[in-house]
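Thread: quick sanity check before group meeting

JM: Hey all, I'm pulling together slides for Thursday and realized we never actually wrote out the predicted structure for the chain we discussed last week. Dropping the sequence here so it's in one place. If anyone has concerns about the input, flag it before I start.
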Amino acid sequence: MARRVTVVEALELACPPSAALSAVWDLKNVERCEVKADAVVVHPRSPQEGSYDVRGHFAGVPWRGRFEYQLHPAGFHSRDADVPPADATVEGGFVVTPLGADQCTVIHYEQYVLAPWVAPLALLVKAYLHRSMKRELRALRRLVVRSTSKTTGG
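JM (edit): ok, ran it. Output follows.
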């Protein structure tokens, strides 16, 4: 049974790519958008990288994690902290793809290496992730719309 679960969701936004990137680069928005996160504390090491601690619930089960992040020109990527990249069991991020001056696609991806005892539930985990990631992208859309209406006076 496969232990690696990868889920990708995408959302088109009617906003400048820079507005979507600003929302994605603000790591405190993980707390505002991520269904599985209740609280986030960000520890930047430089303008482009750092770590963040998360406390939350995964399908109702409490969890805590620490993640390393890197901001890049198209978005950000994060993975388990305190382990070599090849040993990460959780990673994910966002990529913003311009579709024009006032439109873009936001791609959200997450990948998990499940514990052996969870592997038989991989299809349920994947379904849960698709559902939660769609909610996260809708929350991101609300943040971006709110921020662009403030800057345009709308």
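AS: nice. The helical segments are 17-25, 29-33, 122-152. The chain has a mean pLDDT of 93.
JM: adding both to the slides.
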